[in-house]
Amino acid sequence: MTTQATEPHTQVEAPAVVEVSALVKTYGGIRACDGIDLTVRKGELVGLLGRSGSGKSTLLRHLNALNRPDSGQIKVFGVEVAAARGAELRALRRRVGVVFQQFNLIGRLSVLENVLVGGLGRVKGPRYGIITWPRAERQAALVCLDRVGLADRAYERAQNLSGGQQQRVGIARMLMQQPELVLADEPVSSLDPETAANVMDVLFRICLEDQLTVICTLHQVDLALGWTNRVVALRDGLVVLDRLTAKLDAERLTRIYATEPAPSSA
Ligand SMILES: Nc1ncnc2c1ncn2[C@@H]1O[C@H](COP(=O)(O)OP(=O)(O)OP(=O)(O)O)[C@@H](O)[C@H]1O
Protein backbone atom coordinates (compact mmCIF):
# COMPACT_ATOMS: atom_id res chain seq x y z
CA MET A 1 0.00 0.00 0.00
CA THR A 2 1.33 3.44 -0.85
CA THR A 3 1.13 6.49 1.37
CA GLN A 4 1.11 8.77 -1.62
CA ALA A 5 -0.39 12.17 -0.94
CA THR A 6 -1.13 14.14 -4.04
CA GLU A 7 -3.25 17.14 -4.77
CA PRO A 8 -3.92 19.41 -7.72
CA HIS A 9 -1.24 21.97 -8.38
CA THR A 10 -1.13 25.38 -10.00
CA GLN A 11 -0.67 24.38 -13.59
CA VAL A 12 -3.45 21.86 -14.14
CA GLU A 13 -4.13 23.38 -17.56
CA ALA A 14 -0.53 23.10 -18.71
CA PRO A 15 0.48 20.07 -20.78
CA ALA A 16 2.19 17.17 -19.05
CA VAL A 17 5.95 17.13 -19.65
CA VAL A 18 6.78 14.11 -17.49
CA GLU A 19 4.38 11.21 -16.89
CA VAL A 20 5.67 8.39 -14.73
CA SER A 21 3.40 5.55 -13.80
CA ALA A 22 4.07 2.51 -11.59
CA LEU A 23 7.83 2.81 -12.09
CA VAL A 24 9.75 -0.05 -10.51
CA LYS A 25 13.53 -0.31 -10.58
CA THR A 26 15.45 -2.82 -8.50
CA TYR A 27 19.15 -3.36 -7.90
CA GLY A 28 19.62 -6.83 -6.50
CA GLY A 29 17.25 -6.90 -3.55
CA ILE A 30 16.95 -3.10 -3.36
CA ARG A 31 13.78 -1.52 -4.73
CA ALA A 32 15.18 1.91 -5.63
CA CYS A 33 11.84 2.85 -7.23
CA ASP A 34 8.92 0.91 -5.84
CA GLY A 35 5.94 1.97 -7.94
CA ILE A 36 6.38 5.70 -8.51
CA ASP A 37 3.55 7.72 -10.06
CA LEU A 38 4.34 11.31 -10.95
CA THR A 39 3.10 13.85 -13.47
CA VAL A 40 4.96 17.14 -13.94
CA ARG A 41 3.45 19.86 -16.10
CA LYS A 42 5.01 22.58 -18.19
CA GLY A 43 6.46 25.40 -16.14
CA GLU A 44 6.45 23.62 -12.79
CA LEU A 45 9.49 24.04 -10.55
CA VAL A 46 9.56 20.77 -8.63
CA GLY A 47 11.81 20.09 -5.68
CA LEU A 48 12.44 16.35 -5.27
CA LEU A 49 13.30 15.65 -1.66
CA GLY A 50 13.97 12.58 0.43
CA ARG A 51 16.60 10.93 2.52
CA SER A 52 19.72 9.51 1.00
CA GLY A 53 18.87 6.30 -0.85
CA SER A 54 15.16 7.14 -1.24
CA GLY A 55 15.38 6.85 -5.03
CA LYS A 56 15.61 10.48 -6.22
CA SER A 57 18.57 10.07 -8.57
CA THR A 58 17.28 6.74 -9.86
CA LEU A 59 13.98 8.38 -10.78
CA LEU A 60 15.73 11.32 -12.44
CA ARG A 61 17.97 9.03 -14.46
CA HIS A 62 14.92 7.27 -15.92
CA LEU A 63 13.71 10.55 -17.39
CA ASN A 64 16.53 10.78 -19.92
CA ALA A 65 16.99 7.04 -20.37
CA LEU A 66 20.16 6.68 -18.33
CA ASN A 67 18.24 4.01 -16.40
CA ARG A 68 15.87 1.45 -17.85
CA PRO A 69 12.85 0.48 -15.72
CA ASP A 70 12.06 -3.06 -14.62
CA SER A 71 8.40 -2.19 -15.14
CA GLY A 72 6.12 0.80 -15.41
CA GLN A 73 5.87 3.58 -17.95
CA ILE A 74 7.83 6.82 -18.38
CA LYS A 75 6.76 9.42 -20.90
CA VAL A 76 8.65 12.67 -21.45
CA PHE A 77 7.07 15.08 -23.94
CA GLY A 78 4.73 12.21 -24.78
CA VAL A 79 7.59 9.94 -25.87
CA GLU A 80 7.94 6.54 -24.21
CA VAL A 81 11.47 6.93 -22.91
CA ALA A 82 12.29 3.26 -22.39
CA ALA A 83 11.31 2.43 -25.97
CA ALA A 84 13.11 5.38 -27.59
CA ARG A 85 16.22 4.56 -29.59
CA GLY A 86 18.55 6.26 -32.07
CA ALA A 87 17.35 9.55 -33.53
CA GLU A 88 14.20 9.62 -31.40
CA LEU A 89 16.24 9.27 -28.20
CA ARG A 90 18.75 11.91 -29.31
CA ALA A 91 15.91 14.32 -30.13
CA LEU A 92 14.37 13.68 -26.73
CA ARG A 93 17.65 14.21 -24.90
CA ARG A 94 18.20 17.51 -26.70
CA ARG A 95 15.02 18.78 -25.03
CA VAL A 96 16.24 17.73 -21.58
CA GLY A 97 19.01 19.80 -19.96
CA VAL A 98 20.95 18.45 -17.01
CA VAL A 99 22.70 20.28 -14.17
CA PHE A 100 25.10 18.01 -12.30
CA GLN A 101 26.12 18.01 -8.67
CA GLN A 102 29.83 18.08 -9.56
CA PHE A 103 29.41 20.58 -12.44
CA ASN A 104 31.13 18.20 -14.95
CA LEU A 105 33.11 20.96 -16.67
CA ILE A 106 36.28 20.34 -18.67
CA GLY A 107 38.68 22.20 -16.44
CA ARG A 108 41.46 22.88 -18.94
CA LEU A 109 39.03 24.39 -21.47
CA SER A 110 37.85 27.96 -21.32
CA VAL A 111 34.56 28.86 -19.69
CA LEU A 112 33.17 29.80 -23.12
CA GLU A 113 34.11 26.45 -24.68
CA ASN A 114 32.42 24.65 -21.83
CA VAL A 115 29.24 26.58 -22.52
CA LEU A 116 29.53 25.93 -26.27
CA VAL A 117 29.47 22.20 -25.52
CA GLY A 118 25.81 22.65 -24.58
CA GLY A 119 25.05 23.38 -28.24
CA LEU A 120 26.81 20.30 -29.62
CA GLY A 121 23.49 18.64 -30.40
CA ARG A 122 22.89 21.13 -33.22
CA VAL A 123 26.48 21.77 -34.42
CA LYS A 124 27.92 19.05 -36.62
CA GLY A 125 31.51 17.82 -36.55
CA PRO A 126 34.37 18.09 -34.04
CA ARG A 127 35.50 21.49 -32.74
CA TYR A 128 39.07 22.37 -31.84
CA GLY A 129 39.30 25.79 -30.22
CA ILE A 130 36.80 28.61 -29.85
CA ILE A 131 37.41 30.05 -33.31
CA THR A 132 36.12 26.88 -35.02
CA TRP A 133 32.64 27.36 -33.55
CA PRO A 134 30.11 29.28 -35.68
CA ARG A 135 30.00 32.95 -34.72
CA ALA A 136 26.28 32.72 -33.87
CA GLU A 137 27.02 29.91 -31.41
CA ARG A 138 29.79 31.92 -29.76
CA GLN A 139 27.50 34.89 -29.41
CA ALA A 140 24.74 32.71 -27.99
CA ALA A 141 27.20 31.23 -25.47
CA LEU A 142 28.22 34.72 -24.37
CA VAL A 143 24.56 35.62 -23.86
CA CYS A 144 24.13 32.49 -21.70
CA LEU A 145 27.21 33.45 -19.68
CA ASP A 146 25.89 36.96 -19.28
CA ARG A 147 22.63 35.59 -17.88
CA VAL A 148 24.53 33.77 -15.12
CA GLY A 149 26.74 36.83 -14.50
CA LEU A 150 29.98 35.41 -15.88
CA ALA A 151 30.44 37.03 -19.29
CA ASP A 152 33.63 38.68 -18.03
CA ARG A 153 35.17 35.26 -17.23
CA ALA A 154 34.51 33.73 -20.68
CA TYR A 155 38.14 33.25 -21.70
CA GLU A 156 39.49 31.91 -18.39
CA ARG A 157 40.11 28.25 -17.78
CA ALA A 158 37.07 26.71 -16.13
CA GLN A 159 39.23 25.12 -13.43
CA ASN A 160 40.24 28.55 -12.15
CA LEU A 161 36.69 29.42 -11.10
CA SER A 162 35.18 28.83 -7.66
CA GLY A 163 32.64 26.05 -7.12
CA GLY A 164 29.69 28.43 -7.28
CA GLN A 165 31.03 30.04 -10.44
CA GLN A 166 31.63 26.62 -12.01
CA GLN A 167 28.04 25.65 -11.30
CA ARG A 168 26.87 28.88 -12.94
CA VAL A 169 28.91 27.85 -16.00
CA GLY A 170 27.11 24.49 -15.80
CA ILE A 171 23.80 26.36 -15.84
CA ALA A 172 24.94 28.44 -18.84
CA ARG A 173 25.92 25.21 -20.66
CA MET A 174 22.47 23.80 -19.92
CA LEU A 175 20.86 27.02 -21.25
CA MET A 176 22.97 26.80 -24.40
CA GLN A 177 21.25 23.51 -25.14
CA GLN A 178 17.91 25.39 -25.21
CA PRO A 179 16.15 22.67 -23.23
CA GLU A 180 12.50 22.61 -22.25
CA LEU A 181 12.90 20.31 -19.24
CA VAL A 182 15.73 20.75 -16.73
CA LEU A 183 16.87 17.92 -14.47
CA ALA A 184 19.12 19.14 -11.67
CA ASP A 185 20.59 16.46 -9.40
CA GLU A 186 21.65 18.09 -6.14
CA PRO A 187 23.02 21.12 -8.00
CA VAL A 188 24.15 22.97 -4.87
CA SER A 189 25.00 20.25 -2.39
CA SER A 190 28.76 20.80 -2.68
CA LEU A 191 28.48 24.56 -2.08
CA ASP A 192 28.45 26.62 1.12
CA PRO A 193 24.98 27.90 2.16
CA GLU A 194 25.39 31.44 0.82
CA THR A 195 26.79 30.30 -2.52
CA ALA A 196 24.12 27.58 -2.73
CA ALA A 197 21.38 30.20 -2.31
CA ASN A 198 23.00 32.37 -4.97
CA VAL A 199 23.23 29.50 -7.48
CA MET A 200 19.64 28.42 -6.75
CA ASP A 201 18.55 32.00 -7.40
CA VAL A 202 20.33 32.06 -10.76
CA LEU A 203 19.01 28.65 -11.81
CA PHE A 204 15.38 29.10 -10.79
CA ARG A 205 15.13 32.76 -11.86
CA ILE A 206 16.27 31.90 -15.38
CA CYS A 207 14.07 28.80 -15.60
CA LEU A 208 11.09 30.88 -14.48
CA GLU A 209 11.90 33.61 -17.03
CA ASP A 210 12.17 31.02 -19.82
CA GLN A 211 9.14 29.04 -18.60
CA LEU A 212 11.21 25.89 -18.36
CA THR A 213 10.03 22.87 -16.40
CA VAL A 214 12.40 21.91 -13.59
CA ILE A 215 12.85 18.83 -11.45
CA CYS A 216 15.57 19.45 -8.91
CA THR A 217 16.71 17.00 -6.25
CA LEU A 218 17.62 18.72 -3.01
CA HIS A 219 18.38 17.96 0.60
CA GLN A 220 18.05 21.52 1.88
CA VAL A 221 14.49 22.15 3.05
CA ASP A 222 14.98 25.94 3.12
CA LEU A 223 16.07 25.97 -0.52
CA ALA A 224 13.06 23.89 -1.55
CA LEU A 225 10.74 26.28 0.28
CA GLY A 226 12.45 29.32 -1.20
CA TRP A 227 12.63 28.42 -4.87
CA THR A 228 10.31 25.59 -5.89
CA ASN A 229 6.56 25.80 -6.38
CA ARG A 230 5.91 22.11 -5.74
CA VAL A 231 7.61 19.58 -3.51
CA VAL A 232 7.60 15.85 -4.14
CA ALA A 233 9.15 13.68 -1.46
CA LEU A 234 10.30 10.11 -1.84
CA ARG A 235 10.81 7.49 0.80
CA ASP A 236 11.95 3.94 0.08
CA GLY A 237 11.27 4.40 -3.62
CA LEU A 238 7.76 5.76 -3.20
CA VAL A 239 6.17 9.20 -3.40
CA VAL A 240 5.07 9.99 0.15
CA LEU A 241 4.33 13.69 -0.21
CA ASP A 242 3.29 15.84 -3.18
CA ARG A 243 2.30 19.38 -2.30
CA LEU A 244 2.35 22.94 -3.48
CA THR A 245 5.32 24.57 -1.76
CA ALA A 246 3.07 27.42 -0.59
CA LYS A 247 1.13 24.90 1.51
CA LEU A 248 4.22 23.51 3.23
CA ASP A 249 6.34 24.66 6.12
CA ALA A 250 9.86 23.79 7.20
CA GLU A 251 8.72 21.58 10.06
CA ARG A 252 6.58 19.40 7.83
CA LEU A 253 9.31 19.12 5.23
CA THR A 254 11.95 18.32 7.80
CA ARG A 255 9.85 15.34 8.89
CA ILE A 256 10.65 13.75 5.55
CA TYR A 257 14.12 13.25 6.93
CA ALA A 258 13.01 11.88 10.30
CA THR A 259 13.31 8.18 11.08
CA GLU A 260 9.64 8.03 12.06
CA PRO A 261 6.99 6.84 9.57
CA ALA A 262 6.53 8.89 6.43
CA PRO A 263 4.40 12.05 6.59
CA SER A 264 0.75 11.42 5.83
CA SER A 265 -1.48 13.38 3.52
CA ALA A 266 -3.18 15.14 6.46
N1 LIG B 1 23.72 1.54 -10.09
C1 LIG B 1 23.30 1.07 -8.90
N2 LIG B 1 23.67 -0.16 -8.48
C2 LIG B 1 23.22 -0.66 -7.31
N3 LIG B 1 22.40 0.01 -6.47
C3 LIG B 1 22.03 1.26 -6.83
C4 LIG B 1 22.45 1.86 -8.05
N4 LIG B 1 21.89 3.07 -8.15
C5 LIG B 1 21.17 3.26 -7.02
N5 LIG B 1 21.25 2.16 -6.23
C6 LIG B 1 20.59 1.98 -4.94
O1 LIG B 1 19.24 2.39 -5.08
C7 LIG B 1 18.81 3.12 -3.93
C8 LIG B 1 18.36 4.51 -4.34
O2 LIG B 1 19.52 5.24 -4.76
P1 LIG B 1 19.44 6.74 -5.29
O3 LIG B 1 20.82 7.13 -5.69
O4 LIG B 1 18.37 6.82 -6.32
O5 LIG B 1 18.99 7.52 -3.99
P2 LIG B 1 18.97 9.10 -3.72
O6 LIG B 1 17.68 9.39 -3.06
O7 LIG B 1 19.26 9.83 -4.98
O8 LIG B 1 20.16 9.26 -2.69
P3 LIG B 1 21.14 10.51 -2.43
O9 LIG B 1 20.28 11.58 -1.81
O10 LIG B 1 22.16 9.98 -1.49
O11 LIG B 1 21.70 10.90 -3.76
C9 LIG B 1 19.99 3.11 -2.96
O12 LIG B 1 19.83 2.06 -2.04
C10 LIG B 1 21.19 2.86 -3.86
O13 LIG B 1 22.22 2.21 -3.16
From TrEMBL:
Keyword Nucleotide-binding: yes
Lineage, broadest ranks: Bacteria, Bacillati, Actinomycetota, Actinomycetes, Propionibacteriales
Name of the protein this chain belongs to: Phosphonate ABC transporter ATP-binding protein
Pfam family, any one: ABC_tran
Gene: phnC
Record bears the keyword Zinc-finger: no
Annotated ABC transporter domain residues: 18-261
Molecular function terms, GO-annotated: ATP binding
Organism per entry: Tenggerimyces flavus
Keywords attached to this entry: ATP-binding, Cell membrane, Membrane, Nucleotide-binding, Translocase, Transport
CDD domains: ABC_PhnC_transporter
